[in-house]
Amino acid sequence: MTVERTEENTVAYTVEGGIAWVKFNRPEKRNCMSPKLNRQMMRVLDELEYRDDVGVLVLTGEGSAWSAGMDLKEYFRETEAEGLRGIRKSQSEAYGWWRRLRWYHKPTIAMVNGWCFGGGYGPLHSCDLAFAAEDAQFGLSEINWGILPGGGATKVATNLLSMRNAMYHALMGENIDGKTAAEWGLINEAVPAASLEARVTEVAKVLLEKNPVALKATKDAVRRVMEMTYDNAEDYLIRAQEAANFFDGEGRKEGIKQFIDDKTYKPGLGAYNRSGDA
Ligand code: COA
């Protein structure tokens, strides 16, 4: 049965215990990204980003797929029929929410429950951390239908994989499973499908204990310094910490105090108690 989803229904989300669970919600189309989905995802990210009850965002998929990449019919064929204006508009909608996610105010986790193809590598890379089911399948399938891995996918592959693995992956159009994706560095970790949600929840809970200003400064720093010389990175990190002090001057003092004066925790073994933050 063909399900015609409203734009609003292409993305689903719930917020529970500080975690926003956001789902690609076109399971009948293996969660491929249509212009409707891309527009709705941007609205959902916008709605959740600065909410006080959201500390971590998890991006996952409904059904058997995480995302089967771009929608070949609605994203490619139908927008191309509209000419260059249509093509550029749909590109900017897709790239726009991936970019928003890349620099999101809260830490983000990709929970890859199944198929992850092509354009899906954009949001995969946008998420700060990535966990997958061992039997999830990852592929740069573009070569199989006659294009290069665009929309950032080649950049993602070369950022995260060795040159040899990136080249093999892009040229051969063969899929790798979650275990191989973890070995190659495409994701952090692969676990049995039945424990995926529990593992992601465990990681999210650890993040929820950390100072949120420090989390945002850290995630941005990791992405920014990758493209800098050592000296530029050194300077950027000084400025970034000073900017973080402006937003949260007391957190780090409290962290030092609880270790040095109160002796209530050890930073090498866990986070300070933030209920003491001024
Ligand atoms: N674009 C458009 N439609 C897609 C799609 C995509 N990327 N991926 C899946 N669909 C649609 C199928 O056309 C099918 O639609 P229908 O029910 O109207 O016939 C529906 O989703 C289910 O897909 P199906 O192929 O029957 O599911 P499957 O579980 O047997 O296979 C995949 C899953 C992901 C292996 C397969 O759908 C596939 O190869 N998709 C394309 C992946 C791809 O190359 N993406 C790269 C885009 S950059």
Report on the structure:
The chain is an alpha/beta fold and 278 residues long. The chain folds into two domains: 7-208, 2-enoyl-CoA Hydratase, Chain A, domain 1 (Alpha-Beta Complex), CATH 3.90.226.10; 212-276. Helix content is 47%, strand content 15%. The protein contains twelve helices and ten strands. It has helices at 35-48, 72-80, 84-102, 121-126, 142-145, 153-160, 163-172, 178-184, 196-208, 212-225, 230-247, 251-260; strands at 11-16, 19-24, 56-61, 65-67, 108-112, 115-117, 129-133, 137-139, 176-177, 189-191. A six-stranded mixed sheet has the order 1-2-3-5-7-10, with helices on both faces. A four-stranded mixed sheet has the order 4-6-8-9. Helix 2 (72-80) crosses helix 3 (84-102), helix 6 (153-160) runs antiparallel to helix 7 (163-172) and helix 10 (212-225) runs antiparallel to helix 11. The protein is globular. The termini are far apart. The model has no long low-confidence stretch (mean pLDDT 96). The protein binds coenzyme A. Coenzyme A (COA) binds at residues 29-30, 32, 64, 68-73, 115, 117-119, 141-142. One of its GO terms (molecular function) is lyase activity. InterPro entries: ClpP/crotonase-like_dom_sf, Enoyl-CoA_hydra/iso, Enoyl-CoA_Hydratase/Isomerase. Belongs to the enoyl-CoA hydratase/isomerase family. Pfam families: ECH_1. Its EC number is 4.1.2.41, 4.2.1.101.
